[in-house]
Design brief:
- It is built from 12 helices and 18 strands.
- It has about 525 residues and is an alpha/beta fold.
- Strands 2, 11, 13, 14, 16, 17 and 18 form a 7-stranded mixed β-sheet that branches. Strands 4, 5, 6, 7, 8, 9 and 10 form a 7-stranded mixed β-sheet that branches.
- Strand 5 (about 100-105) and strand 6 (about 110) form a beta hairpin.
- Helix 8 packs antiparallel against helix 9.
Length: about 525
């Protein structure tokens, strides 16, 4: 059966002010952080790259094609079903006419309740009625639900310039059908949500990690499902770059060798001929950050000199239009006999990576019933963070505090082996996928655990809390959200492009300066 009946987007009359110019450049801002000098002898050297989503989409943002795959098995009866309906109503009310929504449900089998439908004003009540009519019964066939949702995305007739995403929510173990962790997903993010205390976190995490950019959220507190969904929606509605690809390569003069590229679990490919490494990031949200640390080995040199140690290329799509950034070359000076202390930003990122690694090691220990060793590992991680010296006014201070909070919450969920298996393991798995993707995933105390959250996510957190209290109250539209953000930062729609062109001009001047100095 083919699902090529997705609704076309019918333009809605808009008599508002003239639309701003769409900039393709600058949707992703690149910053480079490294020491400017290195010793003459062979040495290890780090370059950290920061890719940040830049620029608000507004009415020019890409429309979202969202498929929600909802568990309506028997265990979802009563309060769980009610909470899920409220969470879905939030999504229905927030989507705009440029967006489309399809609802898929699963129990022993799956059903597509509607094709991708344009979320016009008259469509919203119809979608709300579909949600209100949901009933719970039967087994849990996650595989069939996932495969149906994937077909809705893959069979679309309208795809150009659109953001695609899947939300999959389940409260129980798969007891019908095959293993959903083995389903091939392709180039679409699948955001999975484990709801309540009896879901199957390893399967849901595997589904998310089989996708491009998906995350697994652990929603133990049933009251938090609307908040969890809102955070995912905030990201999808603020995608500024799609198919983001970063390539790092050594210089043509062999002034360096790439030893390793730290980019979480995003796919990497290495060119055996030139040693370059390419990382595929998928979508990037507005204000979302990707940090990449490149470990280099610099060869011995016999005198002071300038050295081009790394070449950086990146490209992406926005609104279906491709953009290829000008190559950037990282240049340092080889001089002296000792290496300088690492930059604070690099040190902080390494602390985050170490903390994430220790959380994973603790989970492995707890999975083997070595709970005391697991708790000791988490305490070691806490002690490591306590030794970190950071200015309290620095942005890095909040990172350290969030990491401490993460460790404290996980330790509380390891009071017993039973508590760990019911609550601690899902929390740890969600933590792992969040760190590996450098993307927000709901878990634990979602109001305190804000690691990787974007400003839009913070705004939707408050909106979702208010909505849960009274679902009858109207929500701000996405255009209202954008207007509020622009009011706070009027240059936001163009600052990314301006920054890119300024950076390109500086790079050109530096290249000219290097040529002049070399010819002297």
């Amino acid at each position: 059966m083919s699902f090529n009946d997705d609704e076309p987007i019918v333009a809605i009359q808009d008599g508002s002010e003239e639309k701003p110019t769409v900039f393709v450049a600058g949707k992703t801002k690149l910053s480079i952080i490294n020491q400017t000098e290195a010793p003459l002898e062979e040495t290890k050297f780090k370059v950290m790259l920061e890719l940040v989503g830049a620029g608000l989409g507004g009415s020019n943002r890409s429309g979202v094609d969202l498929v929600t795959i909802l568990d309506v098995s028997g265990s979802m009866k009563d309060d769980k079903l009610k909470k899920m309906k409220i969470a879905m109503q939030f999504i229905v009310k927030k989507l705009s006419p440029i967006d489309r929504l399809s609802i898929v449900t699963f129990e022993a089998t799956s059903k597509r309740l509607c094709p991708l439908r344009q979320m016009k004003e008259e469509t919203q009540p119809q979608m709300e009625n579909i949600v209100d009519a949901l009933v719970a019964s039967g087994g849990t066939n996650i595989t069939d639900g996932l495969q149906t949702g994937l077909r809705v995305i893959s069979d679309r007739t309208l795809t150009t310039g659109r953001v695609a995403g899947i939300i999959l929510m389940s409260d129980g173990e798969q007891n019908v059908g095959g293993d959903a962790a083995q389903v091939k997903i392709g180039n679409v993010p699948v955001y999975t949500f484990g709801f309540g205390a009896n879901h199957e976190p390893k399967v849901l995490k595997a589904i998310a990690e089989n996708s491009t950019g998906g995350t697994f959220s652990d929603v133990q507190n049933q009251d938090n499902l609307s908040i969890a969904f809102s955070q995912c929606l905030a990201g999808l509605l603020t995608v500024v770059a799609q198919d983001l690809k970063l390539t790092v390569a050594k210089s043509e003069e062999n002034e360096s060798t790439i030893e390793k590229v730290h980019a979480g679990n995003y796919p990497q490919t290495k060119d055996d001929e030139d040693g370059s490494v390419t990382v595929l990031f998928g979508d990037l949200y507005d204000k979302e950050l990707r940090r990449v640390i490149v470990d280099l080995v610099l060869p011995t040199v016999d005198k002071r000199k300038g050295a081009d140690i790394l070449k950086i290329d990146y490209n992406y799509k926005t609104g279906g239009r491709p953009f290829v950034a000008n190559p950037i070359v990282v240049t340092i000076t080889r001089s002296g006999t000792s290496a300088a202390a690492e930059k604070e930003e690099v040190t902080m990122e390494e602390n985050r990576l170490r903390t994430a690694k220790m959380i994973k090691e603790a989970r492995f220990m707890a999975d083997e019933n070595k709970l005391d060793e697991a708790k000791d590992k988490l305490v070691d991680a806490q002690n490591m963070l306590d030794d970190v010296e950071v200015d309290e006014t620095s942005p890095n201070s909040s990172l350290i505090e969030m990491l401490r909070s993460e460790l404290q919450q996980l330790l509380r969920l390891m009071k017993s082996q039973q508590m760990y298996e019911q609550q601690g393991r899902p929390f740890a798995l969600s933590s792992e996928t969040s760190h590996d993707r450098q993307r927000f995933a709901s878990r634990g105390d979602v109001e305190k655990m804000r690691l990787f959250a974007t400003p839009r996510m913070d705004a939707y957190l408050e909106q979702a809390k208010t909505f849960v209290e009274d679902p009858s109250k109207p929500l701000p539209t996405v255009d209202d959200d954008v207007k509020q953000e622009i009011a706070a930062n009027p240059l936001a729609p163009i600052i990314g492009a301006l920054s890119y062109y300024i950076q390109s001009a500086i790079q050109s001047l530096q290249a000219i300066d290097n040529i002049i100095n070399t010819s002297r």
